[in-house]
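FIELD: query
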Amino acid sequence: MSHWPQLTCTCQVLGVKLLGASVYEVRLALPELGEELGFHAGQYLELVLEDGKAVPYSIASAPKKDEIELHILNQEGGLSEKVLELFNSQPAVQVRMAMGECILYPDHLDAREELLFVAAATGFGQMKAMIEHALDEGVKNPIHLYWGVRAQEQFYLKYLAESWANEHPQVHFVPVVSEELENWEGRSGFVHTAVIEDFDSLDNVRAYVCGSPQMVYAVEDAFLEHGLKEGRIFSDVFAYAPRSA
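FIELD: result
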């Protein structure tokens, strides 16, 4: 599987819109750099700010020739306000791409194993890129998406995940809310607990996880205890926040 070199390039800002729950979709046009610029589903980029600081964001779209999509949670008083102001005020931005090894390798798609995607909050963006790529490639592997949030209003693209499940019989979507509410009739609790409840064993699964380091390592421990094979779980957390020896 080929990897493109990391490049810093200028991307035109195509649009910024609110998806819901303070999450914004940002669309960027990729420059025409031939075969030198590209990315794999599941990778991330770094937005280069005016002061030179780099801010990582998962690419929330499957590989395309002309544009990419980001999902940005706007937190009042946080760096995200500055980032969104940049996207709204500038016609183009500098990005460095692409990074990350939590990706769908070709042998993952050719295998008979089930594909399990576990996301917390805006971690859905990374899962979205991989699931859309898998569907574009005509993958017939069973695909399971478990998306965990605190409150149901934070499912900012729930209709999209539901459409995958409705249109593709191999796709199964399970939304999970950690704070059980009277008006929520779905699953509640920890998102990885819902997975354990639904699978007798994870011995025939490849798992992709996006969330905080604490969440990812809790998922890893629970899944390994439930039969997941070593080397069958993938997350960017393993690279940027490795467990101490």
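FIELD: remark
The chain is about 25% helix and 30% strand.
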